[in-house]
Specification:
Blueprint: H1 6-29, H2 32-43, E1 49-54, H3 61-69, E2 85-90, E3 95-100, E4 103-108, E5 116-120, H4 131-138, E6 144-150, H5 157-170, E7 174-179, H6 186-202, E8 209-212, H7 215-219, H8 227-237, H9 243-323, H10 326-335, H11 344-390, H12 404-426, H13 452-459, H14 461-481, H15 489-528, H16 531-569
Parallel strand pairs: 1-5, 1-6, 2-4, 6-7, 7-8
Antiparallel strand pairs: 2-5, 3-4
Length: 570
Amino acid sequence: MNLLNEEQRNLKIQLDEIIKDLHRMTVEIGNEPLANTVSDLRNRINEPFMFVVVGEVKAGKSSFVNALLDSDVCAVAPDPCTDTIQQILYGEQIETIVINPNLKKIFVPSEILKEIAIVDTPGTNTISEHHQEITESFIPASDLIVFVFEAKNPYRQSAWDFLDFIKDEWRKKVIFVLQQKDLMNDDDLAININGVVKYATKKGINNPNVFEVSAKMELERQSNSGYEVLRNYISQNITGGKAPVLKIDNNIATSINISERINDGLRKREEQLMLDKAFRKDVNETLEHQEEKSNYQVDLMTENILNAYDRVTGEIGNELNRGLSFFSLLRRSIASIFSKKDSPKGWIDDLKYRLEHELKDQLSEKLNLGVNDITDSVSQMVTMIDYKIKNNKTILKSSDEIFSDIANKRNTVMDELRNTFNQFVKKSENFQDNELFPSDFSPNVATGSGLAVIGLVLTAIKGMVFDITGGILTAVGVIFAGVTVGVKKNSIMGNYHTEIEKGRNNLKDEVDGKLKTYVTNIKDKVLNNFKEFDALLENEEIQIRKISVEHHKIDKQLKAMKHSIEQYLN
């Protein structure tokens, strides 16, 4: 058996360390199949150069292997019999060890096995139950794929589909063997050889190597069996001391392939994170904008209420000021002899009545208009977020090769957010605020959606406004009660303006403060639904940063090794 020289040993030790780091990263990622693949690649790094023989049932794979090794190592029967994976290795004597129901190792004292190992597999059209073990254990760690076709019909689809997997997924070097050429005439055989070349070229394999052989002729020692050409190819390209370094090169290529897959998955994961962060930023900006819009509506309504308040109290104040002159009061006192309605008290009662009813009418009108606008704005805040949640974009799919677990976790969190927010919108209690707007109305008045409650809640501000104005009227009434012919006009008017101004400030503070607090509370309740999603994004950012650093280090080392091995081969 050929021994590695010092430089080759150093390359292998270096590669083993890199693959160990690659394996640790796949474990941290949480992708068990990929971790098993990398682990198996590392375990097989010290095995010989590995041929993996694939092809359909009855293509003659076992006979091909027997003839190549000049040994009856693989059973041959009229019915398909290779229902397990058979790894054939060098041994001083023939020995079979059953590893598990799907895999056995056969040791054979064949000279060629000192430099190569051969894996005989079930037919590509019957290996569904063994497919996982083949793909995870042998294809990634293989160094050469030998596609064996039945010379009479090399066009069966299952074999070529399997070639797509090998070429696209693992980019393995492939050679093609047309077995049982003894069953065909030369012209038909040439046609099928050209057909395989065309198929392989169409699949992206440049200058495919195609060999026509007959295991039967080889075992009968016929010189034109085709095996001499195949053995020359193996001798010139693989054996004779080249196999160990070629295996290192293949293992580097496979490791780079896995690294690229991780990189592709990582880029997709980063893209999903960027989209999710943009989504959250959009949600926050939308809430801020809608809060500003709602507060603007509050400012408009407050301004309209105060303008109405100022107009009514100003008109009554002006009339009070005119009527408090000595001669006006004296005239009313004299007139009261004939009619109580014209007395100072009757006049004052009329003023008080008008102040009360005009304030109620004017403020009710402004409240009705303003509450509707604020209700629409707050409802729109919630509705817009609901739409954004339902239409959040997902690019990291559950079927992702590398990060399917992360995709599933994200999808679960996103589904929970959608469901939770959907329930949030429907529950009327989420939009009540009894501390701000005590009310006796029942939550059941909301039909279909909790959003319907917003208008009812905000309408409760009418009671608050009328409570404030009621207090003003009481205070003003006390002031009016002291009006007589001998009153001091300036004192009465000063007290009136003081109470009116006090009421105005209370009205402004209560309406503006409570409505804006309500808007902020709704915004905060909406944001509360995003806690789990935000925690996911925070963890994702940390994990992606960590994996990216590790991946960059491994990728850099693999590329450096690739450069070293290319220099060595040249």
